[in-house]
What does this fold into?
Amino acid sequence: MNHRNVCQMFGIEVPVFGFSHCRNVVAEITKAGGMGCLGTAYYTPEQLEIELNWIDEQVAGKPYAVNMLLPRKFETVGEPLEFEKLPESHVAWQRKLLDDAGIPPLPESERERLVREELDQMHLTPEFAEELLEVICRHPNVKLVVSALGSPPRPILDRLHAQGIKVGAMTGKVQHALKHKEAGLDILIAQGTEAAGHTGVVSSMVLWPEVVDAVAPIPVLAAGGIGRGRQMAAAFALGAQGIWCGSVWHGTRESDLTDEMKQLLYQARSEDAVQTRSKTGKPGRMLRSKYTEAWVQPGAPATLPMPWQSVLNAEARLRIDRARALDYMTCPVGQIVGTINNESSVRQVIQDILEEFVTTVEQMPAATGLADA
Ligand SMILES: Cc1cc2nc3c(=O)[nH]c(=O)nc-3n(C[C@H](O)[C@H](O)[C@H](O)COP(=O)(O)O)c2cc1C
It folds into this structure.
């Protein structure tokens, strides 16, 4: 069967894919006829089992996806993560930043345990990935695994294929897309710089058609800057087979963001979604905060390489969250944050996107003046 149409490929009703770390969002997208994708970056195998069991119960046999950090080479990231290995100058600079802002330090008696708990969520070894894969393969409703860090190693690809699971990857560059094609992946997600999280520098408008043309006939989902139907129409006009959204779910009642964070996002403008290395060491788009801004002020140290910046950031995040220091709070979000202004629901978001998409497509010939030609 020719699977060029992603709805046929996965047995879904609408070509709307949605990324979230929150199981409620994932299940709702799938229940609404699209395909939810659970981000597993911070799950242990035991937690993942619980989450996938829960999603299975909700979706009544409908398909969903899982996003994994599956690096091609593990040795670069397999080193044990210890806070004590961080450069003292970075730790001191960050502590002073938060002290000066009146954000209390972590209680000395709990500091080590709290930071350890954060770091334990960041394991990235072949054994750990293997355990996560075992959990995934026990859940037959998982029909797609998306790699966030390049093409997965061949044995993993073969194993997932043998299980009937399609494999995709995120891409922000046409050169990476060509590597994914060569690696034998089934679907690509071309993510423009507008997007939340780790992003490249090429805008969606330029990236989507470049990737579509480069990897044809592999289907491409468009990501980065899609929160409404007109943007979906643009994605299809540029050759995408479906859309992949992340930021838009932040404004839904199913999202597990705190009310405080949701309010910050509702007030934010598009330009408040800034690219910063302050969370992971790699450029990622996040909500501007005093913390992200401090890292680009004169005198700030250079951010550490991945994964050490995440280790450093763990202590800051704990302090900021415990103090409920709103000015310093941030989360990954894309430029569409400027149009997320009040609470909706996952189902409503999808319905609104599809309605505006259909109207836009219908009106296009008249709008271009070509209808009468
Ligand atoms: C809170 C959040 C966390 C994200 N974390 C990841 C991740 O771990 N892996 C990944 O491949 N993409 C991640 N993304 C990016 C999404 O998969 C998606 O490509 C992106 O949000 C699409 O652009 P948009 O934000 O403009 O909708 C994240 C997005 C958000 C909003």
